[in-house]
Amino acid sequence: MEGKADVYPFAAIVGQDLMRKGLLLNLVNRKLGGILIRGEKGTAKSTAVRAIADLMPELSVVNLPVHATEDRVVGTLDIEHAIREGEKKFEPGLLAKAHGHILYVDEINLLDDAIVDALLDAAAMGVNTVEREGVSYSHPSRFILIGTMNPEEGELRPQLLDRFALSVEVNGERDVESRMEVIRRRLAFEADPDEFRRRYEPQQLELRERIERARQLLEQIKPSEELLKWTAAVGIRLKVDGHRADIMLMKTAMAMAAFQGRTQIVADDMVEAAMMVMPHRMRKRPFEEGAYDHETIRELLGDLLSEVTHAS
Fold first, then answer.
1. Domains of the chain listed by start with CATH number
2. Does pTM surpass 0.70?
3. From CA 111, how far away is CA 115, in angstroms rounded?
4. N or C end: fewer C-beta atoms under 10 angstroms in the chain?
5. Sign of the CA dihedral 206, 212, 213, 214?
6. At 163, is the secondary structure helix, strand, or coil?
């Protein structure tokens, strides 16, 4: 696991509001289902992942290299020892190391299919099972899955894409002042990391306390029948497969309300959650590329956007 002494503070990241909010929501509800961050290189994707763990002392980031072998990921069973001694001997892999922490996969779209399958199994069951020559071993493996990718290098398999609760797009800042601030803060951090981190510690502490309060509030939130009905209607309107999207939408809206210090979900929570939960689950027409943008989602939701105001 990585040390945190030289980690760029999360509170110092400029812009990228949707990405930062998606990461924070996964700390409010650690069973939310992870986040996929798509975007061009050099947009603070990896920096943000390392920084989010820095907010919570009990969390670490476990990196899953894109060229990792299956044994390194799932762990290995010593078959000779099992035959000779009559007992199982298991060498833990990255899925064991990531239990209770963040599992981070950069360039997740380039991951080998066998590794993708192992991730899917562990993400679905919360358990990693290794089987070799009739011997099997299982251990708990619940983690916050964070993937980053550049869509120009290829898309992610739909099966893994659907496992992410949230998906957000990041782009470089487009106004001069914001880009200047990015440069200014980065140079200051590289010149004196300790002093830079001290400067942002009050904001880091405020975020940490806000997350802890939100985790307590989340336990008190009960979605109304009207919001459940609206959520189901959104899933049907956007023609997503299965029911996972509906469940993720409601869980995300609940985490969002808690993060805002409320125990009641409001219309804006539902709409904002839909923007992060739905686009990567919507079917694309032949030859259609990329993800649906927010404007397209709003157009498709149409009258449902006004209905959620009355439902909340």
1. 8-168 (3.40.50.300), 223-309 (1.10.8.80)
2. yes
3. 7
4. N
5. positive
6. coil
Catalytic residue numbers read: 244
The amino acid at residue 159 is Q
Assigned token pair, 195: 């002093």
Cα separation, 42 vs 140, whole angstroms: 35
Helical ranges in the chain per DSSP H: 17-28, 45-55, 70-74, 79-85, 94-97, 113-125, 158-161, 176-191, 193-218, 225-237, 244-259, 267-277, 294-301, 304-311
Question: Could you identify the residue written with the tokens 């306390």?
Answer: 209
Question: Which residue type is seen at 93?
Answer: G
Q: What is the pLDDT of residues 24-64, one digit of tens each?
A: 999 999 999 999 999 888 888 889 999 998 899 899 999 99
Beta bridge partners of 103: 62, 145
φ, ψ (nearest 5 deg) of residue 285: -75, 160
Amino acid at residue number 31: K
